[in-house]
Specification:
Blueprint: E1 2-4, E2 11-13, H1 14-19, H2 35-42, E3 49-51, H3 66-77, E4 83-90, E5 93-100, H4 111-127, E6 131-137, H5 145-164, E7 169-177, H6 180-183, E8 191-194, H7 205-212, H8 223-228, E9 234-235, H9 238-254
Parallel strand pairs: 5-6, 6-7, 7-8, 8-9
Antiparallel strand pairs: 1-2, 3-4, 4-5
Helix pairs in contact: 4-5
Length: about 260
């Protein structure tokens, strides 16, 4: 199988691209990766145990076309929703892990996603484990209306309780991370990391320009712009992500 780079159009074999952590060898563009690939990159082999995988999405508002869209997306992605949560090991250190996947309705946040992430923090609090979440999202899931927006409050409350008890939360922002995720648990980590050249913000660039009536920089809402302005702690390439996370986890254990 061959994969075309969305940025420069360079075509590579999937196996070769995987060896480069799904980073284009020609233009260094970071391609989106699925949850299983992310798990393989970050965790020790065969140590990931999924939690709350029995949760399924409903259609609380009977939103027109939502059930059909869910059916097609579930069939295409083989996922129950836009997030997978569980416990695993990183170089022998036990952690709780959450990974959002933009291939499932742009990783928008609905009732199931919010519940699973909130329960992950509760579980980590009970087991005294650190939490790492790889964030990507287009924001709230409009098909679930107000129920979607409530999820950000729910997750923030669970995270607050976890933090009060001394838990370590590392947030990793990937491309793209927008909307309520960036406004809530995305930037609420004790340590906030980001992948290179990731688009990160709340509202989109055009919306911001229309509101403030000014031209904004070309690199606005990129991970490089954010670190230059003190919004994140570090930009970490995929090939070194596991080793960096290991160092941070070990430092926390020593403390």
């Amino acid at each position: 199988m061959f994969i075309k780079c969305p940025k420069c159009g360079f075509v590579q074999e999937k196996n070769k691209l995987a060896k480069y952590y799904y980073v284009c060898s020609k233009c260094n563009f970071y391609q989106s990766i699925d949850i299983n690939s992310r798990i393989d990159m970050i965790t020790d082999k065969n140590t990931f145990h999924e939690l709350d995988n029995e949760f399924t999405i409903s259609d609380p508002l009977n939103f027109d076309g939502y059930k059909e869209k869910l059916h097609c997306t579930i069939k295409k992605t083989k996922l129950n929703d836009a997030v997978v949560v569980g416990e695993s090991y990183i170089n022998g250190i036990k952690i709780c892990l959450g990974i959002l996947d933009s291939s499932f309705m742009m990783a928008t946040i609905g009732a199931v996603v919010g519940e699973k992430i909130a329960r992950l923090f509760d579980y980590a609090n009970e087991k005294n484990l650190p939490v790492i979440i790889f964030c990507t999202s287009g924001g709230a899931r409009l098909q679930e209306g107000l129920i979607s927006f409530v999820q950000f409050l729910k997750v923030s409350c669970a995270l607050s309780n976890f933090s009060k008890n001394g838990g370590l939360y590392i947030s990793v922002l990937t491309n793209p991370t927008f909307g309520g995720v960036s406004a809530s648990f995305g930037f609420s980590g004790d340590i906030v990391l980001a992948e290179p050249n990731a688009n990160i913000g709340f509202a989109g660039k055009r919306v911001v320009e229309q509101i403030i009536k000014e031209k904004i920089p070309d690199n606005f809402q990129t991970s490089e712009y954010l670190i230059d302005n003190g919004f994140i702690d570090a930009i970490v390439p995929r090939k070194t992500m596991k080793s960096v996370l290991t160092k941070l986890l070990k430092y926390h254990i020593k403390q």
